[in-house]
């Protein structure tokens, strides 16, 4: 009998009680349900969708995760073929309407809150990160067309893209233009009929080709004749793989070819492609909207959505790794209790009883739950902008400002910590975690790319310090800092959380002071110090935000715990709420102090990395 692992076994799991807590107890999603634009939604509908999405993720996507990793994608005759089962899963995904939950009803969507969409996407990303990238990119491309396209473009593309008949991608990166997008050489030459001849090569295109949809709509950044240099001269074009007729039927191939697919460390079920546009001068695209040289601002809309999704991927995979490690730690017996460490005859205990394993588990739990709360905080702000637009524009502006401010935190901290949680999960397993019989080694490989794509995490940090801190004259940052300060003032004398809340207050002051230091470097011409310190500042701000939200959750949990009836029937709820308390205390007292230390380090203005000569790094 073979001892080989069953590749089609679902290993995904999620804590649905934690999800309900976030949606309804901490962030009170029910307060915006039943009113515009979410009139058709109530708490029961949300809960039903959450339960069914989790079931779908476990039954349809989870069993394909290891299959996609081991099999990968293949390129045959110019066509990319996805791993076995992916095409069938794509069809089931769209038949069930999972990708249209938050899309506009006008285009076949269900008009639900973005918070619900993100909750569903976490399940699916955690169950099969590689697969969900295909429909996720199609959703993002459709959103761009909905926001910036002409009425004719919306009518032609949106229903087919939201409905899964056509896929979508975003095409920015070129061999010589990675993070430096402004160096793009892809060209767009205007044709007599108003369309454009597209020519160029794009690399690292996630979902660049696949066999799940009948067509793929590429959004391509290109430069028209005589356009300004840099990013200001880029325009965005709709370039389908197969040309389409006015009635939506498919026409001839559009001279979009796959040069290669990358063979990667992880997310092997996702086809990362080299795409050649117009090698035979037969590639035609149409401008998104009607105005040239607006490509970067248009693409930023998709990139922001993608960045939120990447942070979500980080926490989704990390959560799956943590819960699998927890299950293993509860079952695996190894060594006696520390209280009997000298007794060779003492019974062996489950490793969850060993102090260092408990530390690792609580560390993973705090990071997963804190980052998930940060993401839901962002999506709640986003939903509030929709609720308040036209009713209270000032408050809508505040909520939109918080979305803008939190995007780089979610993407960078979520992806960085997602990988580190997966690493810790492997350590929890010990040697078993390093072999493919268990899922955490795949989670770790899959998670590494999240800190790289959709803008490396240093780009996120520079976006934060270079753009986001100064938006609206600094009002967005002041709003964030003011919200944290208000929480500290209200809870600094809490009998259980007071010490941790005091730590949060000191972290908030450290973030505020460091933001002023960054401004001073800008004003004094010490520009190299800014990129040298940006990553550390983003981490400071992220840790402060996560600690705040964990402590807020703990306060809610402790209040709820007091109202529970006595008796065994409340044991599970009591344990859940107790977990929220210890999670917050651990993070606030073990991770949050790094914020003050980081502020002190930045204050030293060490420039060793700037002063060392290139030759001095090594003599080889």
UniProtKB/TrEMBL annotation:
GO terms for cellular component: plasma membrane. It comes from the Bacteria. GO terms for molecular function: acyl-CoA dehydrogenase activity; flavin adenine dinucleotide binding. Residues 480-612 form the Acetyl-CoA dehydrogenase-like C-terminal domain. The keyword Flavoprotein applies. It catalyses: 3-(methylsulfanyl)propanoyl-CoA + oxidized [electron-transfer flavoprotein] + H(+) = 3-(methylsulfanyl)acryloyl-CoA + reduced [electron-transfer flavoprotein]. Its cofactor is FAD. Residues 293-464 form the Acyl-CoA dehydrogenase/oxidase C-terminal domain. PROSITE patterns: ACYL_COA_DH_1. Its EC number is 1.3.99.41. InterPro entries: Acyl-CoA_dh-like_C_dom, Acyl-CoA_DH_CS, Acyl-CoA_Oxase/DH_mid-dom, Acyl-CoA_Oxase/DH_mid-dom_sf, AcylCo_DH-like_C, AcylCo_DH/oxidase_C, AcylCoA_DH/ox_N, AcylCoA_DH/ox_N_sf. Residues 170-277 form the Acyl-CoA oxidase/dehydrogenase middle domain. Keywords: FAD, Flavoprotein, Oxidoreductase. The keyword Oxidoreductase applies. Residues 44-164 form the Acyl-CoA dehydrogenase/oxidase N-terminal domain. It is an enzyme of class 1 (oxidoreductase). Belongs to the acyl-CoA dehydrogenase family. Involved in the assimilation of dimethylsulphoniopropionate (DMSP), an important compound in the fixation of carbon in marine phytoplankton, by mediating the conversion of 3-(methylthio)propanoyl-CoA (MMPA-CoA) to 3-(methylthio)acryloyl-CoA (MTA-CoA). This is 3-methylmercaptopropionyl-CoA dehydrogenase. It comes from Chondromyces apiculatus DSM 436.
